[in-house]
């Protein structure tokens, strides 16, 4: 029977159905106390328990089917402060407690291994109300020792193969063993033994693994479904079979997982902080799928990075030599959305640039094609199989991932991972639900009715719970130790507790003997917003940690508008880069220029300068979308960017916002100016792959599932793929009336010379940034003392921004003084600055070099007698005073 269950075609078998409602409005506060969602002014409360289910609690009738019933009393003791904080999101309700005699560890643990209903009854024992109970806090309390486990998953030694699974609410766990990823289960189906102290189940098999692939049979009560026999993989799996069907039983120390030279491969020097980071955000498949210099079998895979002479790798080496420090890979752990075998590549018809035919062909196969961004995690600890040459061999994906890391390190680039611990791809009884089918209701964050919250787009996880927190920390530590990952970008990090992120930072330093930089999206929204459940790892809440968040302040001031602008706003809401500075609304233009200036100063909370109102203002006294614009206390806590994988690319947003008759060559200049604002701002510099070659997604504002067609990169630098069809209808159709005429307009398509201009100019920007530690100041005091913003206040010219940096006495400054000038106007602009302090200003050596890309920057002038600078239109230029 068990062997047949191992090979069943479905993901689960319901052994006994649950007739009770699935709502769980009551909440365990700790192991012995609960909160009823209402008042306790009538009747009595009982906790009904049945290991195999069968409880019926119909209003107006006595409850039936319970094996035991525990009477609850009002809780006498007030909650400790830590529990008050943990449950601060709960509405007022009656707090109830178990009697001491019912609160023995064994009794409490048994309660959670079956059906539980909390009922309110009248004096005659008839049900008034009934609800399920959210159990996470009780499980955290009862099984606290599990947090110290170091051997979850598979552990191999010469003597034994050991497996351990945390499943505290399970009634039984068995192991299905398979000789290969496609082989039927072996006859023996051994049972795992429960450890009551930790709630984990363990099994030791003698010698080396008897089979290479496995999955568990977990018998567990699922509220709203019943007693279910789940066929699940291991959340701690380090590798998998195809499509995550089976857990791979192996070790990261096995020779088959080690690329040649892995043990001694060099690694770029560690970075002591964040401000030295210049990051290139790259998708594994985008990198090579269209690169004809990569062998066809390696395109879109980890192996493409091993091709040192490919066009893509030559491009990455050029970036590294100029000053790029890190490549950040979009999610590369196991994801749910891409079939790992048999995925398709749509045939896209030749059609006009404004045709809907291309997107129709792409979207017809979106569910089965080989592309997705990958923000839909399935297994956190295993490399994604669709990027490997063999998805069915667990060792191959590990080895090839490590080869990719080795190759990037050899190119002089550190490797970062984009990680997604804030949600899972699925929950409940979905076949791709892993965590929730092992410990139902625990790993996910629930609302007041017991429903999984989905504010992040998908099924939110709850890293405020001990074992979800542990899974995140253990997972990140594994990637850093075993794959030599140098830095991490956290998707929607504001949904994680600050405490967990700080603990992770310390553990990584301890594990690796070096700083492993942590950055993330610190957006403050959803059910956790404004500290509703815990202090978040969000914007404004990470001061002093050294963990950085992405800043939308300068980004939106530069680009104009905001995320999700509709058809009217996407054109009308211009930014500093694309027309606002020369517009009729002078006040709005000056306010935007102030936000750009604050970005140059690291978006610091305390940085003070004269705002456009004429009064001195701290960064946190400037306003962005009703919030303080300045929100960090150190420059290393902010990530500066004008484009990333989300939303329209910069080229595409400017297709909407720049005047339609702006020539492509001038659009290219706007692009380079935007990149200069990132390169010259204090903090982390973050660049989306292809922004330097004018990347377009043919006006697709959300290309997460838009296939290779709308996500392509061209390393021959001949095209940016603008005007290759209307973008997919799902997220873009409302903009089609605006998009179509633009896609058809040849003036908006850059020539190869335009692409080469920005590419080469970007390399110059990186070289300038790398030339001086003045662009990488580490403290707020240093920024305040060394950075002076010129031409501020109500009389300013908002089209020209001037930022002077004092390098005297600063190691690595390279220059006594340095002046950044940014002119967004199409026309030349001039500015007078007192230059009486010694040597005259001269162009930065990169601008003066024979190979300087931007001849307009090289033609910028300083008139010594007048103390004036002339900056050509749409130009970023740096002047210096040599030591």
UniProtKB/TrEMBL annotation:
Residues annotated as domain Glycosyl hydrolase family 13 catalytic: 365-747
GO biological process, one term: carbohydrate metabolic process
One Gene Ontology molecular-function label: hydrolase activity, hydrolyzing O-glycosyl compounds
Signal sequence residues: none
Pfam families: CBM_48, Pullul_strch_C, Pullulanase_N2
InterPro entries cross-referenced by the UniProt entry: GH, GH13_cat_dom, Glyco_hydro_13_N, Glyco_hydro_b, Ig-like_fold, Ig_E-set, Pullul_strch_C, Pullulanase_N2
Homology family: Belongs to the glycosyl hydrolase 13 family.
Annotated protein name in UniProt: Glycosyl hydrolase family 13 catalytic domain-containing protein
Organism classification: Bacteria, Pseudomonadati, Pseudomonadota, Betaproteobacteria, Burkholderiales
């Amino acid at each position: 029977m068990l062997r047949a269950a191992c090979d069943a075609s479905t993901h689960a078998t319901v052994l006994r159905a649950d007739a009770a409602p699935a709502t769980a409005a009551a909440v365990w506060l700790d192991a012995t106390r609960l909160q009823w969602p209402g008042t306790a002014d009538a009747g009595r409360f009982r906790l009904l328990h049945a290991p195999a289910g069968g409880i019926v609690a119909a209003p107006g009738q006595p409850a039936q089917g319970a094996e035991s019933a525990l009477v609850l009393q009002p809780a006498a003791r007030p909650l400790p402060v830590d529990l008050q904080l943990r449950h601060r999101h709960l509405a007022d309700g009656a707090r109830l407690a178990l009697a001491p005699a019912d609160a023995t560890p064994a009794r409490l643990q048994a309660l959670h291994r079956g059906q539980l209903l909390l009922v309110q009854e009248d004096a005659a024992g008839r049900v008034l109300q009934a609800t399920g109970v959210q159990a996470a806090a009780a499980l955290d309390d009862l099984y606290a020792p599990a947090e110290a486990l170091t051997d979850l998953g598979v552990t191999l030694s010469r003597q034994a193969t050991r497996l351990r699974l945390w499943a505290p609410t399970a009634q039984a766990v068995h192991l299905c063993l398979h000789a290969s990823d496609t082989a039927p289960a072996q006859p023996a189906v051994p049972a795992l033994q429960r450890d009551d102290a930790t709630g984990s189940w363990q099994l030791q098999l003698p010698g080396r693994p008897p089979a290479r692939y496995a999955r568990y049979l977990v018998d567990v009560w699922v509220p709203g479904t019943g007693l279910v026999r789940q066929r699940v993989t291991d959340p701690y799996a380090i590798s998998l079979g195809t499509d995550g069907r089976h857990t791979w039983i192996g070790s990261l120390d096995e020779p088959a997982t080690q690329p040649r030279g892995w043990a001694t491969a060099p690694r770029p020097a560690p970075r002591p902080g964040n401000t030295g980071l210049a990051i290139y955000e790259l998708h594994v498949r985008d990198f090579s799928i269209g690169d004809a210099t990569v062998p066809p079998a390696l395109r879109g895979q980890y192996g493409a990075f091993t091709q040192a002479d490919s066009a893509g790798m030559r491009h990455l080496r050029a970036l590294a030599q100029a000053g790029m420090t890190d490549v950040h890979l979009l999610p590369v752990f196991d994801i749910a959305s891409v079939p790992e075998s048999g995925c398709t590549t749509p045939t896209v018809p030749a059609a006009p640039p404004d045709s809907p035919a291309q997107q129709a062909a792409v979207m017809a196969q979106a569910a089965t094609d080989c592309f997705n961004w990958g923000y839909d995690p399935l297994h956190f600890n295993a490399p994604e199989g669709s990027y490997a040459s063999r998805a069915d061999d667990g060792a191959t994906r590990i080895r090839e991932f490590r080869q990719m890391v080795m190759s990037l390190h050899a190119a002089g680039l550190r490797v970062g991972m984009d990680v997604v611990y804030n949600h899972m791809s699925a929950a409940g009884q979905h076949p791709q639900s892993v965590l929730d089918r092992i410990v139902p209701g625990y790993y996910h964050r629930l609302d007041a009715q017991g429903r999984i919250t989905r504010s992040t787009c998908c099924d939110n996880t709850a890293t405020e719970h001990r074992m979800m927190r542990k899974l995140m920390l253990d997972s990140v530590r594994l990637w850093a130790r075993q794959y030599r990952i140098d830095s991490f970008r956290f998707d929607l990090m504001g949904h994680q507790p600050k405490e967990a992120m700080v603990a992770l930072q310390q553990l990584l330093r301890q594990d690796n003997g070096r700083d492993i930089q942590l950055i993330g999206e610190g957006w403050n929204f959803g059910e956790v917003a404004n500290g509703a459940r815990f202090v978040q790892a969000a914007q404004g809440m990470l001061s002093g940690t050294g963990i950085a968040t992405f800043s939308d302040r300068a980004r939106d001031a530069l680009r104009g508008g905001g995320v999700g602008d509709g058809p009217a706003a996407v054109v009308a809401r211009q930014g500093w880069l694309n027309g606002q500075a020369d517009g009729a609304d002078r006040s709005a233009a000056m306010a935007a220029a102030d936000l750009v200036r604050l970005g140059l100063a690291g978006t610091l909370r305390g940085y003070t300068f004269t705002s456009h109102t004429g009064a001195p203002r701290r960064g946190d006294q400037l306003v962005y979308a009703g919030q303080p614009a300045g929100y960090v206390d150190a420059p290393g806590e902010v990530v500066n960017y004008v484009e990333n994988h989300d939303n329209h690319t910069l080229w595409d947003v400017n297709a909407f916002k720049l005047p339609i008759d702006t020539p492509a060559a001038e659009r290219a200049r706007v692009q380079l100016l935007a990149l200069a604002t990132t390169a010259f701002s204090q903090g982390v510099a973050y660049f989306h792959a292809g922004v330097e070659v004018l990347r377009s997604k043919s006006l697709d504002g959300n290309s997460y599932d838009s296939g290779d067609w709308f996500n392509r990169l061209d390393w021959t630098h001949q095209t940016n793929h603008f005007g290759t069809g209307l973008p997919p209808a799902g997220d873009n159709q409302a903009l089609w009336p605006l998009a179509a005429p633009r896609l058809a307009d040849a003036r908006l398509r850059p020539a190869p010379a335009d692409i080469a201009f920005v590419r080469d100019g970007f390399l110059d920007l990186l070289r300038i940034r790398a030339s001086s530690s003045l662009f990488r100041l580490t403290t707020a005091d240093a920024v305040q003392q060394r950075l002076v913003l010129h031409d501020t206040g109500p009389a300013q010219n908002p089209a020209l921004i001037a930022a002077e940096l004092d390098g005297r006495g600063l190691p690595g400054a390279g220059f006594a003084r340095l002046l950044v000038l940014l002119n967004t106007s199409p026309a030349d602009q001039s500015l007078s600055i007192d230059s009486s302090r010694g040597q005259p200003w001269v162009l930065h050596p990169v601008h003066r070099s024979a190979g300087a890309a931007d001849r307009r920057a090289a033609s910028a002038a300083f008139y010594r007698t007048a103390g004036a600078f002339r900056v050509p239109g749409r130009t970023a230029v740096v002047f210096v005073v040599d030591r």
